[in-house]
Structures are given as structure tokens and as C-alpha cells.
Amino acid sequence: MLSYIAYLPGLLAYYVAQNYSVQKAFIWVYIPTVLLLPDYYRAITPGLPDPTFNQSASVALFAVFVMKGSPGYRFSYTDLIVGGFAIAVSISEFLASGYSDAQNLAFFELTSVYFPYIFAKSLIEPFNLRYDFAKCVVLCLSFVFFMNLFENKFGYNLWQAYLGMFFPGQGEGWVTTFRFGLARAAGPYGHCLVDGIVMAVGYRLQRWLQWSDAWPKKIKQLAWIPWFTPAQIFTLFILGGVLGTFGKGQWLAGIVGAGIVIIGRSKQRVLAMTCVIAFMLFVGVPLLLAFLNYASVGRANAKDDNQETAAYRYELVTEYMDEANEHLWFGWGLMKWPEIPGFESIDNNFLLYYLNHGVIAVGLLLTIFFGMMGRLLVHGMTRPMPDPRGSSLAFTLAATYLMYFIAVCTVGMLYQSCTLFFIITGLSDAYLRLSKWDGYQGTTKATIAPDTRKYKFKKVL
Predict the structure, then answer these.
(1) Residue 298 has pLDDT above 80, yes or no
(2) The pTM is what?
(3) Which of 37, 287, 216 is nearest to 140 (CA)?
């Protein structure tokens, strides 16, 4: 019975959506639920799927969303791709394990993939809530950062320590790992690398808010400090959150993703893109080849822990590809492939999906990655330079996709990182369809030109 507290976000989301608006429930209930509450705790409910905090809020919000006529929703072809991905994953589990297991996975795909995508595409851009959404993400991750500092210092995860009391026997498989003599913070996300992905997305959104002048210039009580601005402080918070996970793959993803943002901030975009592409060809390709040589020596011949980790991920692909090809179209089912001794985890999301769900699911997922990233880049390149500089959401979202792709090549897209990915996809789809502006449109910068017409009625006539 204690685990039934997982239903509380659902009750709150339903109340806010019914009595205020679906948009407010999405921004101020659903997003904090996703980012602040673990997704590995479930309400054990006889005869029903066992929902997490996030899933209970998702079901309740979707129910009110439909009852109120699906505000903001418009069909797009991306709906078919995301829906096809969720269906392909569910079918693969049905073929491998039967209805019972497939029902649980289908519930996950519905509530943690498709519903979040629909919410984001319907409730953010159509109601001009992009800044509210991004600020909510940044505020939530700033809180996580402070909790992570405790975990970095003491190796003690506060979410597992206190929420775990309500979910006996759940979430005990997650352990704290260490690097550089400090604990690697996992926050409410189960694993430090998942935390790193979520924080990296938050960092990109915060930099976009900062460049868009979306935060107040000063906090009244601290206006006497010359360098103190909310935008700078939040940027430091989220950057600290990224660093505190000690995830080198996520750090690399953030650095590479910044190349796309540089294009968006440049006044000479074509020249900037040419320089970035040239850098990738003449520097990135040789570095990639050097890394493959570095990783292909095998774990037995590795000279240090870093090379052993790289060799492990390289061997994963070479060892498991034949296994994956045996069940090409729909995979082996969730975690049911023949395990090869010596490989206790699949640290590559695309290989993991290939093994679990087959080439159809992987193909649709890659279509989302590169299709959305390409569309966003084309959109950003064809739009005028926004004011202020760097406030183009197109380049920020495209950089987020590139970051995600690099990061999940080294870890699974698990828990909240999966849900957040499809929220970003919903936002991107609506942005591409509806966006008519970039740059902050709030009251701090908005001005209304005075009406100097002497006889206004003539204009009416």
C-alpha cells in the first residue's frame, strides 16, 4: 500500500488540469514529476499495470487533455513515426514473450513515449509556452544539482534513501559508482550517465534562455552585486550538474553539440557551417579513426581503465551483432537475447534496441534523430538572424539531438532520458510547424509603437 504514493502526481495533475488548464498541469505538475521523481519506483497494483510517478501523471493528464478536446493538437507525419516506434517495440515484446509482458511494455511506450510527445507538441508552442517550459526544466534541474552535491560528497543518494522506504524491494539494483575520488551523482535518474544526459539537455535549454534574455536582468534583493544575474547563476548550476556526473561520453556530446549552436550564433551562418563541417572532416574523422584503433586493441591489451572501457564498448558491437541479426525484424524481446559471457551490460542504446526490438524499431528511432535534426538545421539556416543573437530555438534543438545521439551510443536511453527525448521531439515538431518568431517576446523587451494617426476612424472606414 505504501507504493500507492506513486498515484499522487496523477491526482495533482488531474486536479490542476480540470480546475486551471491542461497547459498549467503539464508545465508545473507533469514536467517536475518527470525530472524530480525516480522512474524506477512503481505502485504495485493487482490486475493493472504498475505505474511510476511519471506514468500516473501522464495517464491523468491525457484523460483531461482528451476530455477538453485535445487543445493545441494538430496531426503531423511525425505522429506516425513516433507511434510506429512505440507499436514496433510493443509488437516485438508480444512476439517474444506473449501478452502479459507485452501489456506492461505497451503501457510504458504509451505513457512514457507517446503521451509525452503529444503533450509537448500540443501544449508548448501552440500556447507560446516555450520559455515557461524551459524555465521549469532549469529550475527542476537546479534543485537536482544541489541534491547531487550531497551525493558527490557522501556517496549517498537522497531519493533512494527516503523515497525507497515507500517502495520496499524496488530500485535496489542501482549502486553509486566513483571516479576521481568522488561519487558520480545519479540523482533521481537511476544511473549517473542518465543524469548526465538529462543535465546536458538542461544546459542547452538554459544557454538558450540566457541568450534570449528570458530571465530578469537582476534580482532586486541582490542588485548590489555587479556580476550576479539569474541567467549566469542558473548556467553555473546546470553546468555543475553536468560535471558532477563525471560522464565523459556526456561531456563529449555536449562539446560536439555546441558546434551546432555556434552556427546559430554566427552572423555568417554559411561560413560558420562550412568551418564546422571542415573541422569535422579534417579533425573529427582522424580523431574517430584514432579512437577506433585505440578501442580495438581488446580489453586484455588495454593499458588503463579508460582504454578498457573503450575496448569493452567496441567489443559489444562486434560480439553481439550476429546475435542481433538472428532476430532481425523484431528482436529477441526485452532483455531476452542469449547473453555472451563477459558482457554484463549493453552500453549502446542502438545495439540494445536492435537486440531487444529489431531493425524496425531502430530504423524508426534513427529516423526521428536525423530527420528532426536535419529539418531543424534547414529551418534555422533559412530564417533571419534572430534578436538577440543566439535565441534561435532551431539550433538549440538540433544541438540537443546531436548530443543525445552521441551520448546514447555509450549508454541506454533509460527512464527519464527516454521521456525527455520524446518531449523534445514533440516540441521540435510543433516548433517546425508553427514558429513565426525567435527571440524573447516577454514584457521586459516588448514595446508598443505609439499610434500617431490623427483621425483613427478613417482607417476603420
Answers:
(1) no
(2) 0.90
(3) 37
